[in-house]
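Practice set, problem 2.
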Amino acid sequence: MNDAPSAQGTAPLAPSASARAGFPRADYLRASAVGSDFGVVEKPITVWARLYQVTWLRKLVILVLLAVLWQVYAQRLNNSLLVPTFGATIEAMIDGFRHGNLLERALFSLKVLLMGYSLGIALAGLFSMLAITFRLGNDLLETLTSMFNPLPAIALLPLALIWFGLGNGSIIFVLVHSVLWPVALNTHSGFLSVSNTLRMVGHNYGLRGFGYVGKILIPAAFPNILAGLKIGWAFAWRTLIAAELVFGVSSGKGGLGWFILENKNQLEIASVFAGLLTIILIGLFVENCVFRVIEQRTVRRWGMQA
């Protein structure tokens, strides 16, 4: 008689605290058993196999390898005006944060970026709700997206300077343009992909308007919305740095783009690379510590993504 519990009576195991923290579970790490006439033998798992299961550690190894390649290539090139070494770049970055104005420039760029990014997201949400609620709103969003999404935001900077002058208003305008259309397009596509079953559930509960969108459409379409937010963030960063490189200082202050341009004119190439590396590090932080946390607490917890 088979005393093993049936598959139907086996309850699913809840994720452990280590699995929720991003570390591999013990049952995932256990090697496959090898059957024989004398019983079952489990192969011991090695330390390297355990470390390989840690996502952040794999990414850290990739970053270290890239830094080593940078250092080796710069040393072989031996021309600091073209490519400074990784060590010289780190020294310039530390000096810029401690004695220079690199921190001030980074904070200024982040402040302007968040203003334009937030406004773009708000407008994208408004357009998407109008598009999913009214047929005319859908036609309006599709037409505007087809017109303005392919248009580079930096191409509107000359007009923005005429309309808003030399100030944050011009940069915020082009930032809104770079964020609005990709976020609205992904959000609207997510809304359209929601199943009819969920739609009928919302209608049966009497949900209409903003309640229907907030309780049914947004949770169901959140993977698409999150993808749009990531794309909008990347577009906003590129647009901001390009805008600051074009006309630089506004109101006596400047951001990371102006920091890069200023040091390039003074042939401080190590500081130029320090500014670029600061942009990269901010991007890595936002991707892995902001968007990744949102993804783990929403779409992964809801079972909408593997």
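Problem 2, part (b): a different protein.
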Amino acid sequence: MTQAAPRPRRSCLYMPGANVKALAKAREIGADALLFDLEDAVAPDAKGEARANVLAALAEGGYGARERIVRINALTTPWGDNDLEAMAGAKPDGLLAPKVNSADDVAAVDEAMTEAGFPKAAALWVMIETPLAILNIKEIAAASKRTRLSVFVMGTNDLAKDLHAKQTAQRTPFLYALSAGVTAARAYGLTAIDGVYNDIQNTDGFIEICRQGLALGFDGKTLIHPSQVEPCNAVFAPAPDEIAEARAVIEAFAAPENAGKGVLKVNGKMTELLHLEQARRTIAIADAIAARG
């Protein structure tokens, strides 16, 4: 199942389930999505406590328009089934499933969500973080046609570990995997979210990598610290000149004298119907961001 309309997912901030203060602070942070993490950010002996913390935070509410997604442990772990079943009653906006390697993995989580009582509207996000997931990327994306799958999240740290690759400044070792993820997501109408940036103190480096992710085609980025939210939102939001250009394209094609035309000149540029589609998406995203304040 894919999104009916574009939704801002510029900044997707991981919130460790074991940190009660962080879960409360998230109500004041301007991230588009909050990823309540029960997996990597939680030690094995704290899994149960983290699950209870997230349940309590979701029950209390107060997160406004922020999308609330819970990253559960994989169903193959001792905690995954309990995570999934517990969250069904908490009614988050969706789940993020880690370590997905195949379309069968997607189907298994989707089926478990149905059996646990999740509504069809509940989204399924999946981590693309293993070499096998990259090799099976087309089949994983195609599973969206018969499941709740709507979002890819790139897990570059796990990819680095499994590929024995280095985290270079320009992420050259990961460009194949990142592009494969975006390409498959676009082919099947999914949202594509870029991986995290680990050097919290390096704001300039972070902004540069955000711009690289935008250039690669990502809709947003996963974050590990609140300080990354504001610059990330700025990079992944349509710029004022982009919005103005998009409105000009829409107005030009809507003009009565241009009815039925497939190519126009707008602001001195040859503009086709494909540019009209892009313009409408830009405005939809810009309007959704403006509506959030």
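Answer key, part (b): The chain has a mean pLDDT of 95. Residues 273-292 form the longest helix (20 residues).
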